[in-house]
Amino acid sequence: MTHTHVTAPTQFVEATGIRFAYRRFGRDTREPLLFMQHFRGGMDHWDPAITDGFAMDRPVILFNNAGVASSSGETPNTVDAMGDYAADFVGALGLSHVDVLGFSIGGYIAQALTLRHPALVKRLMLVGTGPRAGEPPTDPKYSQYGTSTDPGTGETGLEAFLYLFFSPSTSSQAAGRAFWERRHLRRKDIDPPSSAQAMKAQLAAIAEWREVRGERFGELKRIAQPTLVINGNRDIMVPTINSFTLSQQIPNAQLIIYPDSGHASHFQYPDLFLAHARLFLDR
Amino acid sequence: MTTHTHQTAPTQFVEAKGIRFAYRRFGKASGVPLVFNMHFTGTMEHWDPLVTDGFAKDREVILFDNAGVSSSSGEVPTSVERMAANALAFIKALGLSQVDVLGFSLGGLVAQELTLVAPELVRRLVLVGTGPRSGESMASLTPEAQRIFGATYDPPDHLWLRVFFTPSEASQAAGRAYLKRFRRRTEGRDPEVNESVAPAQLEALAKWGAPRANPFDYLKAIHQPTLVINGHNDVIVYTINSYILQQNIPNAQLILYPDANHGSQYQYPERFVRHVSMFLSEEGA
């Protein structure tokens, strides 16, 4: 049976004492594309239009890192440690290498994974993210909305999500609501919300990631993988200039910036994003 | 009817504003034609056949020499505004009511100005290796450009290896392949520009790049869907200028290619054609 975003069962694999939750679906044709999620997010926060789109011609793997949602353990408080856990997870699946898509903090983790375990990563996609010691967000509502919780779901509510991930324009907000509907299509076997511990540890990791370590942006020169950097033109979570910086510093990086969009430009333009990402991955 | 290509399309002429414009028109006659605006001292010959023929598979391609350039008569004006007025006269003389416009470098400045003065004429805009008014280091040639244009090359075409490509082995190899393609047309070639072209174009570039108050405000008036493309390290028109264009044009997408300089579209011609075709074929607007 061919599984999709909505039907793929949650599976588990153990590594270094963590029981990692993951879902794997799509055509078994080549190396899988591994998705790394944003702050507080789990497997259910991806866009089925994107995951199922990729799954048409490659295996897709969604997973929760240590301590996130349905995975066991504690979320560590550095991006490096998260990158190491991701490597453990990939190893536990018996995979020699993967393509990686990292969104937001998932993009930080994807960079750490690539730098610390370069042989595991074939191609890298960095979406709505930035380098270590990049430009921090300046939006006044960033912190309040980012850590807010809808008591009904235990997760970020729609209003905060639309504010943080999309541009204020009517079309972007409408695209945000359309995404919100798509991402709630899966109703069975869904993740629990991430714990308070996961959020606190991720906040600590984000704070640590903002610190300069050695030469600013120096480590990006060591990313030899073909890289695609993607963002919206007005990202208030990880300001868009950080995507420009990534593309300037990573030796083999292509940059795409979409109009009238924010942090989640890929959820706003799933078809265009898929077409661009596929061109990149299949080259 | 013969299907013409970059190599075989005859140079034709059309008169407007007392100027005899040289142009070539080929490709699949359907939908909105794509009009190419050339860079500093360039002629119709400097476009890459892989790019023009790539587009011509599913749209009409129009190359032309603006006033005073190569096979066109008249004088090169000393402002981008007047170059755009000439481009507009040329397009109207062809009887076209709507076009897509691609501008490279100086041609990208002309394309912006053309869009501002004739918004109803321009459906979609593609800006390659170019920048905004008062863009960074655009008031004069960049130090790198001064060195590159100031040197002599044997053969002279090798200038373009430095202008368009990075020093990396891969980029230089792509550059040599581009030069081969660009020399392939042997019949009815455009002559190189005469010595009066560069000074006039430089004067226009300097006026465009000169500092002014709120320089990027004019970009808010470009409502056309716009695709901005450049290499990640353009030393002729610094890459940050592409970012500025994207950030200030209301509906603009940006693509920057790796290990590429001013001529990224000649380094990655297939990828470029795919990306631009995808953009030109989008639904809506």
Give the arrangement of secondary structure elements:
The complex is a heterodimer of chains A (283) and B (285).
Chain A: E1 11-15, E2 18-26, E3 33-36, H1 48-55, E4 59-63, H2 79-92, E5 98-103, H3 105-116, E6 121-127, H4 142-146, H5 158-165, H6 170-183, H7 196-209, E7 227-232, H8 241-249, E8 253-258, H9 265-268, H10 270-281
Parallel strand pairs in A: 3-4, 3-5, 5-6, 6-7, 7-8
Antiparallel strand pairs in A: 1-2, 2-4
Chain B: E1 12-16, E2 19-27, E3 34-37, H1 49-56, E4 60-64, H2 80-93, E5 99-104, H3 106-117, E6 122-128, H4 143-150, H5 159-164, H6 169-183, H7 197-209, E7 226-231, H8 240-248, E8 252-257, H9 264-267, H10 269-280
Give a quick precis of the structure:
The complex is a heterodimer of chains A (283) and B (285). Chain A is of the alpha/beta class and 283 residues long.
What is the number of independent domains of chain B? Answer: 1
**Could you give me the name of the CATH homologous superfamily of chain A?**
Alpha/Beta hydrolase fold, catalytic domain
Regions of chain A with pLDDT < 50 over 5+ consecutive residues?
none
**What's the SSE pattern of chain A?**
EEEHEHEHEHHHHEHEHH
